[in-house]
Amino acid sequence: MINPLLYFLLFVKASLFSTGGLSNLPSLHQDLIGAGWAVDAQFGQSIAIGQISPGPNGLWVISLGYLTYGYFGAILALFAIAIPPFLVLGVAAVFARIARKRWVDGLMRGLSLAVVGVMASVCWTILRQPGVVWSGWLIAVGALLLAASRRVNLIVILGLAGAVGYLIYR
Amino acid sequence: MNYSQDAQPSPLVSPPPTTLSLLRIWTLIGLQSFGGGASTQLLIQREFVRRRAWIGADELLQLWNLCLFTPGINLIALTILIGRRLGGARGIVVSVAGLMLPSAAVTCLLAAGFEVVQHSIVIHAVLRGVVPATAGITAVVGANFAAPVAQRARADGPRIMGICAVIILAVTLALTVLRLSAAAVIVGAALLGVAIFTPWKGGGPLPPDAEPLSDKSSHP
After folding, report:
1. Same domain, A82 and A123
2. Which of residues 141-170 of A touch B (CB under 8 A)?
3. pLDDT tens, B99-134?
4. DSSP helix/strand/coil, B215
5. Which structural domain range is residue A141 located in?
6. Chain B CB contacts of A84 below 8 Å
7. Residue A99 lies in a domain
8. How many domains does chain A have?
9. What does the domain layout of chain B look like in residue ranges?
10. Are A132 and A77 in a shared domain?
11. In chain A, count of helices (H) and strands (E)?
12. CA A42, CA B181: separation in Å to the nearest integer?
């Protein structure tokens, strides 16, 4: 039923024209539903699983692969999201070529400032989510202090946050 | 020894890892990165910059800047660049595999057991605690990235410091309040950087001793 090659290429295409996270969702949704290889509910499930599982958020696609096409689908999805980032080697090569140009240092400086601003905006966006109330802000501050202390293992920080969530929100 | 690089743009701060230890570190990062990309980023900063001093804070930021121009998951692109920096082609393979295979396996297990997980009140409550924690972790990741930026701005004096602060604030507001597209905002900041920081007077390329980040594999 599912054409494995086409299935794989649809995942590659979605990943190629995305920037991580859920940005490949619209493309996959349109293509897989259109081909009759997925149903709506599988997307919701995949995103939920992606939230719980470790790794970058973009790995939600692996659960979509699993739910729609079993372990084979998960493997295809894994390769499909791993391939496009290799283009970074081309970006690095281009950069190496222009690195000596006078304006490149300013470009990288501007980018670095943007990165810091992006991080701040991500922080803000997370804290403005509907489910985050004042207790969530306290958890955020607590996690910040523990992570900044550099002594506490990340798993311990996340475990504590999860335990506090369990006690408050269950 | 498989980690030797053909060219050495900036010498490694401490002896580089073996392929096996690189694989081990990335596997641990992959398994511990619950809560999404911020966790992965923090673990990368902690392991490679702070604990082992294999990569400088400023260099990591430069590598991340390159990843912004790459399609797909930026963190995988960063993994590729760090892997190559520390172990060449073999370093790339073990780094990407180490980051992704354990997480992919856990994801499959969770997907297989989804019926159990789906309606679990416990998991929902735990997640509601973890999500705001990732905001705090993101703040620390951002502060770590800001450190080399701030250091350089401080050396340039109060005027440049002020300009840098304004650009950071403008990017934040453009993304949160104005909700502009991230790509447009990032390109805008880069162009602003060119306009503000480029020493236009004097002309000609940079002298060889002013060494920005350079690409390792471009010298075969």
Report:
1. no
2. 141-148, 150, 154-155, 157-158, 160-166, 168-170
3. 999 999 999 998 888 777 767 888 889 989 999 999
4. coil
5. 104-169
6. 70-72
7. no
8. 2
9. 19-121
10. no
11. 8, 0
12. 28
